Automatic annotation (TrEMBL):
The keyword Chaperone does not apply. It comes from Urochloa decumbens. Residues 39-474 form the Major facilitator superfamily (MFS) profile domain. Its main location: membrane. Signal peptide: none annotated. The chain crosses the membrane at residues 40-65, 77-99, 111-133, 171-191, 212-234, 278-298, 318-337, 349-367, 374-397, 417-437, 449-471. This is Major facilitator superfamily (MFS) profile domain-containing protein.
Length: 480
């Protein structure tokens, strides 16, 4: 039943090159066998700063489309909202592989720093967009320039000893998840401040004229703080000059599972353990992104359309509580779960548990008051925790399938493919939600039930691909 973590390789002769940042990290890991809390804190902060802009617009997206006067009818708002939500991922799809290759060539740190800088600039510009095409363009460029996802995953592996790899990637997944839920809470609480807080903001103030600038500006200021902190971010990529290839292979990533001999000279696209884990990862990210958009649109839409009639502030509070629950899960529960079940079995179990959980959402419209609150908050927290477990497990399998010299490119391929599916997610979810609202009174699967039924179909497909022959486990990753 259990899976064993990748076995620690036999000790190699320690050979370090002066001036090589990767060797400095390896030396530090050999001396300090504990958890690298400082480096993981940097990983968490930079990941959150990168993730916050992605979903911060979800709580106010409905109102933004209304204010931009692009939708002809109320039922068409979901369609335009989906295109706007997808534009970021289209940009990331176009550029992720490029940033992964760059991270393998010049280092992880320069790509991370540039990505955070792009968040500061283009997230602020998004807050002052007054036309639909301007909003689409700004999100597209932000997605293309924010190439941090591929290098930060490689970085989180490279700063940790083998026994802490799961923790390193779970920090990325959890920080990403927190960013994706705290972002909407910021957007929900700070968007349209002149309407929400008329005693503090007037209609004639800059935040009255640009009702979505305040949440974007707050996120950008946080990104500025993170950008400054990157000065102390150590590089992890090995950079050797005048040294033989054999020695470089021995030096590279001394403490990680040995994939060099297995995949030396092999194209990444022919590495089936890598590609199969990427396929599973993409299916689950498609589901996760579609779920995030549908949850926001569903909770904020009117009850006559099968929604909950929440305000943007209430949606933000819901997602903030889900983020807090996710943090508790990551700190106290995830590591024992991973140690007991391993990557693959934890993914299977989480995927299976997600199916009945998603079925329950449309029936919550029959609840009210504290019963609705308890059910909805519990479901949101549980879904966030299960999603993090799945994405962390598939990410670990991807990184174990390649050596360090290919890790940035491998994560770039993963981010590219995942971004394509994430672009489909909001667009497809928005179109599905818009169509579903028009058939709310259908006899067979009315609108709100149809939305979550389609979500569950994707979840079931993801569950199936976690089994052989669809999923190939790296040869050095033993299953009991």
């Amino acid at each position: 039943m259990d899976e064993e973590a990748p076995p620690t390789p036999p000790p190699a002769t320690s050979l370090y090159v002066d001036g090589c940042p990767g060797c400095a990290i390896e030396r530090k890991k050999e001396i300090n066998k504990g958890i690298p809390y400082k480096e993981l804190l940097f990983v968490a902060a930079t990941t959150i700063a990168s993730a916050l802009p992605i979903s911060s617009l979800f709580p106010f997206l409905y109102y933004m489309i209304e204010d931009l006067h692009v939708a002809k009818t109320e039922q068409d708002i979901g369609l335009y909202a989906g295109f706007l939500g997808a534009s970021y991922f289209v940009g990331r799809f176009l550029a992720s592989l490029f940033w992964g290759v760059v991270a393998d060539r010049i280092g992880r740190k320069p790509v991370i720093v540039f990505s955070i800088f792009s968040v500061v600039i283009f997230n602020t510009l998004f807050g002052v967009c007054m036309k639909y095409w301007m909003a689409i363009t700004t999100r597209l460029v932000l997605g293309a320039l924010n190439g941090m996802l591929a290098p930060i995953k490689a970085y989180s592996i490279e700063i940790c000893r083998p026994e802490h790899h799961a923790l390193g990637l779970s920090v990325v997944s959890t920080a990403w998840g927190i960013g994706l839920v705290v972002g909407p809470s910021i957007g929900g609480c700070l968007a349209r401040p002149a309407q929400q807080y008329p005693n503090m903001f007037s209609d004639k103030s800059i935040f009255g004229r640009f009702p979505y600038l305040l949440p974007c500006l707050c996120i950008s200021l946080f990104a500025v703080v993170v950008l400054v902190s990157c000065i102390w971010l150590p590089e992890t990529l090995h950079k050797h000059k005048n040294i033989g290839n054999n020695e470089i292979e021995m030096l590279s990533d001394l403490g990680t599972p040995r994939t060099e001999d297995i995949h030396r000279g092999k194209s990444l696209y022919k590495n089936w353990p890598l590609m199969s884990s990427i396929i599973a990862y993409c299916i689950f990210t498609l589901h996760d992104t579609a779920y995030s958009e549908i949850l926001s649109l569903w909770t904020i839409s009117d009850r006559k359309y099968g929604g909950l009639s929440f305000s943007s502030k209430e949606v933000g509070q819901l997602l903030a509580v889900a983020g807090a629950g996710l943090l508790v899960y990551q700190l106290f529960i995830y590591r024992p779960v991973h140690k007991f079940l391993g990557c693959v079995n934890s993914c299977r179990a989480s995927s299976a548990l997600s199916i009945p959980l998603i079925v329950s959402f449309p029936f919550m419209t029959h609840l009210s008051g504290y019963r609705l609150g308890l059910a909805l908050y519990f479901a949101a927290i549980a879904k966030a925790a299960l999603g993090m477990t799945i994405l962390t497990g598939t990410s670990l399998l991807q990184n174990y399938a390649v050596p360090q010299s290919q890790r940035g490119a491998a994560n770039g391929i993963s981010a590219t493919a995942m971004s394509f599916f994430k672009a489909i997610g909001p667009a497809g979810a928005g179109a599905l939600f818009s169509w579903a609202q028009k058939r709310q009174h259908a006899a067979f699967f009315p609108g709100d039930q149809m939305v979550f039924f389609v979500l569950n179909i994707v979840q079931c497909i993801g569950f199936v691909v976690t089994f052989k022959p669809f999923l190939a486990v790296p040869e050095h990753y033993d299953l009991k």
